[in-house]
Design brief:
- The protein has helices spanning 6-18, 24-37, 40-50, 55-81, 88-112, 115-132, 141-154.
- The protein has one domain.
- It has seven helices and no strands.
- With 162 residues, it is mainly alpha-helical.
């Protein structure tokens, strides 16, 4: 068996991440629910910054937001994405390593308020979220409709077995 190259592993992650972005409902959910509504604490701290508070508080809120997105997304990647991957070991190593580095960066930057580190951690958390939800059929218009139709067809089938 031929060993995959690092670029093949990255390409696989890229393709898994870009595929759901073709679905308007997925993109809209990400923009409105994850970025805007999920990041409302960050936006509120930006308002405080405009009114004279230190940028440190914006960074701290971004770090909290990034960790809140990254940790459950990484767990979802471990439980639902990696088991179906052709590059299991590589994806485990990359996901775990980036998560650990992100947590270290958060710890380092949380107290010092490094804004650029906060931005990078937030972008990484968004990438984790996209990858973790890439196979979430509830976030696609067509797949959601198909799932509801299937559920309706199967409704009551368990009642007949009694």
């Amino acid at each position: 068996m031929e060993h995959p190259s690092f670029s093949e592993v990255l390409k696989d992650l890229y393709l898994k991440s870009i595929e759901p972005c073709k679905e308007p409902s997925f993109v809209l959910y990400f923009i409105f629910m994850v970025v805007i509504f999920g990041g409302i604490g960050v936006f509120l701290s930006l308002w405080q910054y405009i009114n004279g508070e230190p940028l440190k508080y914006v960074s701290q809120n971004m770090m909290t937001y990034a960790v809140a997105l990254s940790v459950p997304a990484a767990l979802t990647i471990f439980l639902h994405i990696i088991p179906h991957s052709d590059y299991k070991v590589s994806h485990i190593i990359m996901t775990f390593s980036v998560l650990i580095l992100q947590i270290i960066a958060v710890c380092f930057a949380f107290w010092d308020g490094h804004f650029m580190v906060a931005i990078v951690c937030t972008i990484i958390s968004w990438c984790y979220w996209i990858l973790a939800n890439s196979c979430n059929s509830s976030l696609g218009d067509k797949s959601y409709h198909s799932q509801i139709k299937k559920d309706l067809q199967n409704h009551g089938s368990k009642w007949d077995n009694n």
